[in-house]
Amino acid sequence: MKNMLPLVAALALAWSSSYTVMANTPLSATRNPVDVTLFVMSKCPDAMKCEAVFSKVFQTENLPPVDPLLSYIGSIERKITTSTSISSLGDITGAHGGSALIGTTTTTTTTTVTCKHGPLECAGNTQQLCFKKYFSDYRVWVPFVITMNSWHPVRIGDPNYAREVAERVVKDGDLDNSSLVSLLDKVDDCSKGQEGFDLLVESIEHTIHHGVGTSCTVFIDDKKRCVIDGGVWRECPEGSTVADFVRSIKEAALGATRNLMSRRLLRWLSTGDL
């Protein structure tokens, strides 16, 4: 992990320079962004290496529009408990006399999330999810993750560290100071409360749904593309360099564009309407 920190630190600094989104390309006008999902764990060295590579992918000039996502790996356990309480309505007068009893049954579901590297990793995952919720532009939240990885990665999961990283990343943004502080406070509240816990559960369920258990696993256009495990890229038939991943994204965008044009042509042939 120490060997990769200079690389990750350099990438974090690179994000502070100007960045141009090529939003007026023909591809952006004809299709939705290409989904790029990294299945990760916030304290995993392989995840950090994977995120460092894709931070460079996302800065590539003329890259088609992308929709990056970090989906977190963990386990979820739900325990259902049922309790019944009996209460009396008191004496009931009538032909037979006696009293009435009412039984009330309460069912409670307790959800527990476990992360491979412990509670601090769960906290780090949640902090990244909450930051992304309130700063949804990936040109902001990706640098947050990269800076968290490069600055003092041993502190990932510490709420004070998350706030320090957030302030460092957004300090040069377009928001006025009061609006910025308000958003950062919302991130903090989210990270510590039910809102963040729900985001974490949703993210882990997404990972489980895709059958992924290795950090970091890469999906492009909802298809498994590559895995890095133990510092080694594997299951990458189309290569594992920045250029290889950029090519895969461009191919996914081009394929979707061709499919869209084919559907439009068929509709025009059948209805005369594009």
| Helix/strand order | HHEHEEEHHHHHEEEH
Radius of gyration: 25 Å
Count the helices. How many?
9
The proportion of strand residues reads 15-25%
Q: Please state the structural category.
A: alpha+beta
Morphology: globular
Walk me through this protein's architecture.
This protein is α+β, with helices and mostly antiparallel strands and 274 residues long. It has helices spanning 5-14, 26-30, 45-57, 119-134, 138-150, 159-170, 177-192, 194-209, 242-271, and strands at 34-40, 66-72, 75-91, 99-114, 217-220, 223-229, 232-234. Strand 3 (75-91) and strand 4 form a beta hairpin. Helices cover 48% and strands 22% of the residues.
List keywords for this structure.
5-stranded mixed β-sheet, two-stranded antiparallel ribbon, 48% helix, 274 residues, single chain, 22% strand
What layout of secondary structure does this protein have?
Elements (H helix, E strand, L loop, with lengths): L4 H10 L11 H5 L3 E7 L4 H13 L8 E7 L2 E17 L7 E16 L4 H16 L3 H13 L8 H12 L6 H16 L1 H16 L7 E4 L2 E7 L2 E3 L7 H30 L3
Parallel strand pairs: 1-2
Antiparallel strand pairs: 1-5, 3-4, 5-6, 6-7
Helix pairs in contact: 1-3, 1-5, 3-5, 3-9, 4-7, 4-8, 5-6, 6-7, 7-8
Quick recap of the structure?
With 274 residues, this protein is an alpha+beta fold. It is built from nine helices and seven strands.
